[in-house]
Amino acid sequence: MNSIKAQISQKSDSLAIMAIISDVFDGMRSSDSSMISKHMHQDVKMQSIGYDKSGDTKLTRATNADGWLNAVAQPKKQVWDERTWNYQMQLNEMLANVWMDYAFYVDENFSHCGVNSFTLVKLNDIWKIIYIIDTRKQEDCKNPETLK
């Protein structure tokens, strides 16, 4: 593939991937898991790393997305609002990783912050999320409001 075609293809892939990421967080805010699940590979895995009550780091067991998608879909009075910024993407024709800072709010109340890392694979010209890992903490958080 010549250089111009490769650049156009990469730009198109980059826009498609960012639209997927946007759908994930819009789906969380609207409690619409179908906005999220359509972008998940059937073998997707999710993990979190954070601190336990004694201050030790703890990595959760890798799980599929079913529990999280069910929680997103449950009717709730409050809005789950994950605000993201500082996107960094690595991309080739079949594999992408998107890293971003986030602050999670329940309605307007701050809950926690960290970093998300989404890994996506391109199968038959369709990008799918194959792995999500995030860090979680409640102190020393940056958030969009403090960055202004």
UniProtKB/TrEMBL annotation:
Name of the protein in its database record: Nuclear transport factor 2 family protein
Organism per entry: Marivirga aurantiaca
